[in-house]
Amino acid sequence: MYDLIRDSSFGQIVRYMTKNKYLQYSEEKEGFQHPHYFQETEKPETRCLPTSPPEVDGHCGTPQHLSTIATTNNEADRGCNHLRPTEIDTESEDLEDALETNPIKRLVTQQSLHTLEKERTLVIEPIKTAQGVILVDWYTTDDPDNPQNWGRGKKAFVAFLICIYSFAVYLGSSIYIGGVPQIIEKFGVSIEAASLGLALYVLAYGAGAMVFSPISEIPAVGRNPPYVITVIIFAVLWIPTALVDNFGGLLVLRFLTGFFGSPCLATGGATFGDIFPLIQVPYLLVIWGGATVLAPALGPIIGNFSATAENWRWVSWIMLWLSGPISGLLLFSLPETSSSTILYYRARRLRKLTGNAAFKSQAEIDQAELTTRQIVYNALIKPTEINILDPAVLYSTIYTSLVYGIFYSFFESFPLVYQGIYGFSFRVSSLPFIGVLAGLAAAGGLVIFHWHFFVVKPVMRLGVSALGEPEKRLVPALFACFWLPIGLFIFGWTARPSIHWIATIVGLSLSIVGTFTIIVCMLLYLAFTYPKYAASLFAANDFARSSLAAGAIMFSRPMFINLGIHWGVSLLGFLVLICCVLLFCLWNWGSMLRARSRFAVS
């Protein structure tokens, strides 16, 4: 609990106001001792990194944890209580050769070794470069400040905070639908104009991801400030949104709430990667993704019942009551999870404590070599360049955007189907969204089953080589992709008075199985194929999805009215059917595309 409060934004404020007198870190406490951070010891043994990483218990070695590997190979059996120091030349060709290994496999290897080593306390001696820089690392293999070493309870609590935060942001999008009829009446606008309140919110949380994702990657900033500052603004903005008295102001406030709610959508996955081993992250992505799909499905139900019981402003008050406590939880109990940020501030404390300016974190060295122009280019321009020049990325962006836009088109088709065809009241017309639950359960189960039995188990048995090619991440989508067009055709062609309404809900559930599985698998494919650009590509993908979803909200209702529900939904079904064929092409010939790509990892 002490660490949780100290590392939260509230704890950092207390430290700043008391000049670090309270909630101190280990380096600031009296009596702090570490054998390698106070005095110059004998010159470390100089060794060159091998051009091909050594094998350690079936895993390949890595330059970042070479000292760890040396201990496992040479000293562990002799009961040594510290890791052998290593002096390296960061400019050497050997280091470049070692770094060319697949970063995904390298990370899995690091974490596999770390899992074995953290069961006992081994002191880690920092690496000293030929330039005299001492790289600040974790003090021991079980260092409690390392997010990967946190207990299960602490990890689960942080994951819960991110999931409930994301749930609230997504709920804020569709809960607005409940107040649309009263907004039309009060402000005298058309239903198309009123729909802008939903479209702008969705567009804004995609645009915000492009801003807050690169900010969270800056070591001096980290994940916490973007999370906490924006969630407080997000919560406060619901007050004027509930009180606004003109339509233009309402639209502006809806855009701002979506924009400031976006950090959790931009970097939530990165937070899971900070605290959980990569091999476990997909489990968390399923839970997190489920929350982000369930929330907009429940939004119309909550909004319809609350707005008809009170008024259109009530939906904003509900969002305030939900986001207010969440912002408080994040302020007082969300710790920093970025290892780069944690080590960045540890290096600063060590420099202050020892007076030795040679102590630097890896992030400081990396950032020193980048100009502001390069940072902006890598965060904003590079993802666009990859999307244009790499056909696999372009296809994944188009496909995920299309299925996401189709999901949001349901918000426009439901009133036409359940009020117009089946005669449901406005309040009850949102209840069919409960069918999303069945689809989510099936899709989540499919992804988890495949990951556990076809990835985790083989890796545990055969080692990291069992990960295979990135195209293997697409296998669940190959089974589920056809469920989306089938579900759409069922929904569209059973929506008639002569057929019971339950048939349309079956179609909705089947389409959700396809939607959810496709998005999760495509994002995993991007992460395993383009790990160097994963964070920026996720933000770009999120922006593309949100942009098309915002467009779908505006064009789907006129399309359904002009073509009819049957052919309007069928048109969307035919489009995703073409994408299904292309998905099999990507699975079959993806390795050829990667071979021609200058961005993909070999």
TrEMBL record:
<dbReference type="GO" id="GO:0005886">
    <property type="term" value="C:plasma membrane"/>
</dbReference>
<dbReference type="GO" id="GO:0015244">
    <property type="term" value="F:fluconazole transmembrane transporter activity"/>
</dbReference>
<dbReference type="InterPro" id="IPR020846">
    <property type="entry name" value="MFS_dom"/>
</dbReference>
<feature type="transmembrane region" description="Helical">
    <location>
        <begin position="567"/>
        <end position="589"/>
    </location>
</feature>
<feature type="domain" description="Major facilitator superfamily (MFS) profile">
    <location>
        <begin position="158"/>
        <end position="602"/>
    </location>
</feature>
<feature type="transmembrane region" description="Helical">
    <location>
        <begin position="227"/>
        <end position="244"/>
    </location>
</feature>
<keyword id="KW-0472">Membrane</keyword>
<dbReference type="GO" id="GO:1990961">
    <property type="term" value="P:xenobiotic detoxification by transmembrane export across the plasma membrane"/>
</dbReference>
<feature type="transmembrane region" description="Helical">
    <location>
        <begin position="250"/>
        <end position="271"/>
    </location>
</feature>
<protein>
    <submittedName>
        <fullName>Major facilitator superfamily domain-containing protein</fullName>
    </submittedName>
</protein>
<dbReference type="InterPro" id="IPR011701">
    <property type="entry name" value="MFS"/>
</dbReference>
<feature type="transmembrane region" description="Helical">
    <location>
        <begin position="499"/>
        <end position="526"/>
    </location>
</feature>
<feature type="transmembrane region" description="Helical">
    <location>
        <begin position="431"/>
        <end position="453"/>
    </location>
</feature>
<feature type="transmembrane region" description="Helical">
    <location>
        <begin position="283"/>
        <end position="302"/>
    </location>
</feature>
<dbReference type="InterPro" id="IPR036259">
    <property type="entry name" value="MFS_trans_sf"/>
</dbReference>
<dbReference type="Pfam" id="PF07690">
    <property type="entry name" value="MFS_1"/>
</dbReference>
<keyword id="KW-1133">Transmembrane helix</keyword>
<feature type="transmembrane region" description="Helical">
    <location>
        <begin position="474"/>
        <end position="493"/>
    </location>
</feature>
<feature type="transmembrane region" description="Helical">
    <location>
        <begin position="198"/>
        <end position="215"/>
    </location>
</feature>
<feature type="transmembrane region" description="Helical">
    <location>
        <begin position="392"/>
        <end position="411"/>
    </location>
</feature>
<feature type="transmembrane region" description="Helical">
    <location>
        <begin position="314"/>
        <end position="334"/>
    </location>
</feature>
<keyword id="KW-0812">Transmembrane</keyword>
<feature type="transmembrane region" description="Helical">
    <location>
        <begin position="156"/>
        <end position="178"/>
    </location>
</feature>
